[in-house]
Amino acid sequence: MSENRRRLPKPLAWVLKGSIAIACVFLVIHKVPWGSVGPTLRQCNFALIALSVLLQFGVATANAMRWKLLLRQPELPLPKYLYFVLLGQFFNLFLPTYVAAEALKVIAFGRKYGGTQANIGIALITKLTGMVIQILMGAIGLALYAGELGERGLFSRIRPGAASSAIAAGVAGAAVAAVWWFRHSLKAQTWFRTILEIGSDRKLVAGTVFWTALIQLLAAGSSYCLFLSLWPDTHFWEVVLFTTIILAVLSLPFGFGGVGVREYLNLLLFTDVGGIPAHITFAVNIVGYIPVLSVALTGGLWMAFRKLKE
Which of 16, 12, 31 is CA-nearest to residue 255? Predict the structure, then answer.
């Protein structure tokens, strides 16, 4: 009986995630005027889409440069890191979450070149740095468009109450307290020592911030190009702000890899708040798969080529 009880939450979680995904897909279906999507796609600016693809490859290269900097193994050339970055993007097409693809990338690299624990620490510190920089960029976008967004009633819709603020503060405080409480046992872990070593080296911290900021700017530029290809009146920092909110929500365990949830959030923010027509926002979602698939399939082809050579 106890074993059945332990297994119950997992199927229940799948049911809840599936329900959220289905509900979001249902909302998207009823929100988008489908007859306008096809003609809109035929009018897109392919030069801007190509630039978006190029910027995504820039993101992958910058990720490899940052990884090489933090791992501190000068004998490994940059293409080795770039290969596993692209490999992670390839497997992200088939795995339900980005975290699973990142873990697979770290494990595959560790089996080939060692340093799995160190790479876990690097992945954690880069993820945290990325979140901080993304929030800062989102704050800049919010500051630039606060007046305009206020006129559209955004703040009256998302204003946090006392209860939600207390919960957020409690979660943050619990996380800090847990790290402080377990600091001695964590120091015995290689991945945690890697984080401490990087944090105590000013050059590594500066390099982490530089490469992470560049990655975020390149990724934002790629998204901006996609919107420009279909809606020339798009503002860069508005894209940054809305993308920050969407990525923050998608980091929570909603749905299966964000399917349905991502599309609905794009419509909710870029259409309902940003004023971009629904069929254009959805068309941007569709062309957005072009840079993602380009990078991911490059990783898959590279993997197949290496297997053939072996």
Answer: 16
Q: How far, in Å, CA of 85 to CA of 218, rounded?
A: 16
Stated as kind and residue range, the H or E segment containing 38 is helix 37-42
The torsion defined by the Cα of 63, 45, 271 and 285, in degrees rounded to 10, comes to -50
- CB contact at 8 A, 63 and 218: no
Distance separating alpha carbons of residues 44 and 286, to the nearest angstrom? 11
Find out whether 276 and 270 touch, Cβ atoms under 8 Å: yes
Is 91:104 a contact under the CB 8 Å cutoff? yes
Distance of CA 2 to the CA centre of its chain: 37
Cα 240 to Cα 137: distance, rounded to the nearest angstrom: 7
H helices of 72-189, where?
A: 78-91, 98-113, 116-151, 154-158, 162-181, 183-186
Q: d(Cα 241, Cα 273) in Å, to the nearest integer?
A: 12
- 107-162 tens-digit pLDDT: 889 888 888 999 999 999 999 999 999 999 989 988 887 777 666 655 555 555 55
Question: In the chain, what percentage of residues exceed pLDDT 90?
Answer: 48
